[in-house]
From TrEMBL:
Record key words, sorted: Glycosyltransferase, Transferase
Full protein name: Uncharacterized protein
InterPro entries, alphabetized: UDP_glucos_trans (IPR002213)
Keyword Repeat: no
Length: 165
């Protein structure tokens, strides 16, 4: 799994803040990462109190996605996450990093039209280069675009498909 560079995490934080949207951000530390969080903008967590939550480590993704308050999902476009986002009926901000994720992004954004890309273009081991403006734009657009209605309809179909009887 690719790692995010400190500068990319910083840009992500700044994009989230600039989007003025509420968020839950799950950050998993790699084995070789130091305890200090140099990537976190000074005062970020204080400024985001009541607006954003950073979860360090593992989080129950399906449980979170199924919550009625969740309006969008930023995903690396792995197949499981793609299915979980679609089945939960939440539109996606796509950020593929490796292998089939770029094909899954095309399915999400161009075929099903239930997501918006941040603009990742190439397979990488260290994720870097996506600017805060692209993150902010995608985060704002995903909640007001037609992707939200389309994804909700797909989520309803998915739920009906697994109902008893």
């Amino acid at each position: 799994m690719p790692d995010f560079s400190d500068s990319q995490l910083f840009e992500l934080a700044m994009g989230l803040e600039a989007s003025e949207q509420q968020f839950i951000w799950v950050v998993r530390k790699g084995k070789n990462e130091k305890e200090e969080e140099d990537w976190l903008p000074k005062g970020f967590e204080k400024r985001m109190e009541g607006k954003g939550l950073i979860i360090r480590g593992w989080a129950p993704q399906v449980l979170i996605l199924d919550h009625e308050a969740v309006g969008g999902f930023a995903t690396h476009c792995g197949w499981n996450s793609t299915l979980e986002g679609e089945a939960s009926g939440v539109p996606m901000v796509t950020w593929p990093m490796a292998s089939e994720q770029f094909y899954n992004e095309k399915l999400i954004t161009q075929v099903l039209k239930i997501g918006i890309s941040v603009g990742a273009q190439q397979w990488t081991r260290v994720v870097d280069g996506i600017k805060r403006e692209a993150i902010e734009k995608a985060m704002r657009q995903i909640l007001v675009g037609e992707e939200a209605a389309r994804t909700k309809a797909l989520g309803e179909m998915a739920r009906r498909g697994v109902e008893g009887g």
